[in-house]
Amino acid sequence: MSHRTLCTSESRWSTARLRRGGLTRRLTTRVLPGTMALALAGAGLVALAPPALALAATTVAFSYTGSGQSFTVPASVYSISVDVFGAQGQDGPEGGSTGGLGGEAQGNLTVTPGQVLQINVGGSGGYGGAGAAGTGVEPATGGGAGGGASDVRQGGNGLSERMLVAGGGGGGGNWIGSAVSGAGGNGGGASGTAGGNGSDGAEGGGAGTASAGGGGGLGANGAPTAAGGAPGLGGTGGAGASGAGGGGGGGGWFGGGGGGGIMSSPSATVGSAGGGGGSGYGPAGTVFHSGVRSGDGLVSITYAPAAADIDVHITAQPRLGILVPYLRYTLTANNTGPDTATSATITASLPRGTSATGLSAGCTTGAGTVTCTYEAIAKGAGTAKSFDIPLHLLSLGRVSVTGTRTASTPTDPNAANDSATANCTVISILLATCS
């Protein structure tokens, strides 16, 4: 029988099956030149990560106060959901026509922790850029004032800082005798609606739109034309010195025009026009509704701290070095969401008396540990980093290395998966199995 010499560049594999706890596991041993052997053990079942946990949401509501308010963005909050309602326009006094309803704008805004937002809640007939009512021959025959717009502002309190706006409704017209008067137009929405016409050609105020204020309504029987809307302001209703005043325009991104007033007629039966509703505004994706709010406006802000659940995994695998076999440990930071992790740190505890080599970029070692830092990890993604421990440094028997999340941003809502352990059995300075 001939014998063949095993060359230094050759190796051969032998396979045996081990049975433990009713499960069959495959043990693969690689036999190296000079009788060096390093064993690899296949792992068993892989557990599925639980669903990501979101932190509880908080809603803060701002009601009408007649002045500006503010909201300071809490820590770890980078996005807010905002629901803004404009105010209803006033009815014409003593049985005049009804004021238009306020609009609604629902949108999301990107924010930073500590940022101060300016909150303006429109009032029915007042604060929020509402147009004043047109005067009549007496107070009882004047129009209704417009409704104020509600908005949220970033970076200041000027009109240019408005990020989300809901328009106010136009004020209602009024009448003398039994004439028809015009109702106020509804606030927007992306655009308001025009005010209703009065009698004898008194025109309703035009609606505020995304790009212009509503035109002022023409007066009747010699009454002047009402004022048009402007950025943030509703127009004043037209005067009816001997008759009925028109309704004021609603405030908005662009305000609605004032309704036309009307002078008295020989029959003393006249009706003025309603003011136009103001328009809304918001970033892409904003949802608008026109004519949904009665009474004063409202602003509500809903937020939840950003959260990113880092699910820590660690694996160990025997490897063959040129001179010294070693165990390769891989630390993986998996982000199960719900938000992007901007950074994470995992620290692995090393067996006593050992040191790590071959560290991935971002990993450092010292005092019996390896610490790996991770940059941004998107939801559903993972990043792996590795290090090696030479086999001859390990004591015989069971060897465990545990990786633990020691820091991450934003908040990790689930501590249950913050650590994981890889177990190996060192059989000799040349032989180990890992599971």
Structure description:
With 435 residues, the protein is mainly β. The protein folds into two domains: 169 residues, Immunoglobulin-like; 247 residues, no CATH class. It has no helices and 23 strands. The protein has a six-stranded antiparallel beta sheet, with no helix packed on it. It has a five-stranded antiparallel beta sheet with strand order 4-14-6-7-13, with no helix packed on it. A hairpin with a 7-residue loop joins strand 9 and strand 10. It is rod-shaped. The N terminus is likely disordered. InterPro entries: ALK/LTK-like_GRD, DUF11_rpt, OmcB-like_DUF11. Its main location: membrane. It is a single-pass type I membrane protein. One of its GO terms (cellular component) is plasma membrane.
Question: What characteristics describe this protein?
Answer:
Immunoglobulin-like; mainly beta; 2 domains
How is this structure best summarized?
With 435 residues, this protein is mainly β.
Annotation field: number of helices: 0
Largest sheet: 6 strands, antiparallel
Low-confidence stretches: 1-50
Number of strands: 23
Let me know the average pLDDT: 87
The overall number of domains is: 2
The span between the termini is 40 Å
**Rg over CA atoms:** 37 Å
Structural class: mainly beta
Helical content stands at under 10%
- Strand arrangement within the widest β-sheet reads 18-19-17-21-22-23
Strand content: 35-45%
Helix and strand element order: EEEEEEEEEEEEEEEEEEEEEEE
Principal-axis shape equals rod-shaped
